[in-house]
Amino acid sequence: QQQVKQSPQSLIVQKGGISIINCAYENTAFDYFPWYQQFPGKGPALLIAIRPDVSEKKEGRFTISFNKSAKQFSLHIMDSQPGDSATYFCAASPTWNTGNQFYFGTGTSLTVIP
Amino acid sequence: SQTIHQWPATLVQPVGSPLSLECTVEGTSNPNLYWYRQAAGRGLQLLFYSVGIGQISSEVPQNLSASRPQDRQFILSSKKLLLSDSGFYLCAWGRGLANYGYTFGSGTRLTVV
User: Fold this and answer.
1) Can you spell out the DSSP letters for A14-72?
2) CATH superfamily name and code, A4-113
């Protein structure tokens, strides 16, 4: 059972456009929501994360929007650049989990066309 | 600062051969350690995690096993590889109860032929 559902599977955006990736979850115990960026042949790297006490977090061109009542969160990449072309994973974790396990979405392959 | 090392980067092994992938973490103590597998074009599948020396939790039944002989060392093994074991294997570490996200290693590309 997929704990975190991510869409779309792939995304093609023109340079300068906005990339939007969506995730949804069911487990209300989740309270930490990171996004990871993975380039081909590399391990995923933490990009940005949010806790449910805020509805939005922005770091540079990357913004997480969080809707607690809908149990949805999304990543917005403003002014998308070819260097942003990568696979993006959303994830979620409950703080009380001593194993600190994260549940990952299935990933979105983003291609930014010059 | 903390760093995570994973090796080898690439491995080609025949079916039926053994496997040993090693992961070590520096700059922290008592980390949570994880092994993930990523099939081509697929998401991240958690294989094993460990919250301490000798403590291994398995998420999926499979041909693989894991061990944690030292606090900052995590090993993924197999006695006999299957073709279906091919994939990109990632080691990661995280803190305890506080959620700071994972830090992933650079991965091992395993091809079983």
Assistant:
1) ETTS-EEEEEEE--TT--BEEEEEE-TTS--EEEEEE-TT-SEEEETTEEEEEETTTTE
2) Immunoglobulins (2.60.40.10)
